[in-house]
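Slide 14.
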Amino acid sequence: MSSVPLSVGRSEGSVTPADPDLRERLLTAFRWIDPGEWCDHLLTDRSGWWRDPVILDRIGPALAALSPAQPTVVVAPATSGFLLGPLVARAAGVGFVEAYRDLSGAELADDLITRSSGPGHDGRPVVLGVRSRHLGSDDSVLVVDDWVETGAQLSALAEIISAAGARYLGAAVIVDGAQLPVRDRLGVRGLVREVELDHRRRS
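Slide 15: predicted structure.
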């Protein structure tokens, strides 16, 4: 059985995609939201990404191209990962497996591989679960998400993939906000860096 690597190899961080128009669209369509006095930090508004048909058309191939090797399956966490993951899987010509955060639903009355990590960006532990019958020792798994900062979700998913006996290829994300040690340990490759998002763009 494979184990979670201490490092999957040094990542070059944000990768400049072959499609510079996609990169510009991602930066332009994003907004920071100032919720007012009740919150001491800005919130993210990524809805513009999903509203743009060009982004929806190109984001899957762009993220699939960040994989260091050909995957056999894509795994992504709820909730936006359930939108993004199938786009990447389709571009890579492979299947998609959901990673659930809410493990209390009756629809998950199945054998799960669960792992916890954290804390996440909200300061709470992250608990994720994947149906065990959808991952196996012959799989090479690309993890996909829209944003990474602490790497808590990716760490939990890397452990789940290892527990299934599969190979963890790394993570392809839209926004890379991780620190270098997290980026290198988890093999994070992104289309844009968090610092590139214009804080003057506020709703």
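Speaker note: The chain has six helices and nine strands.
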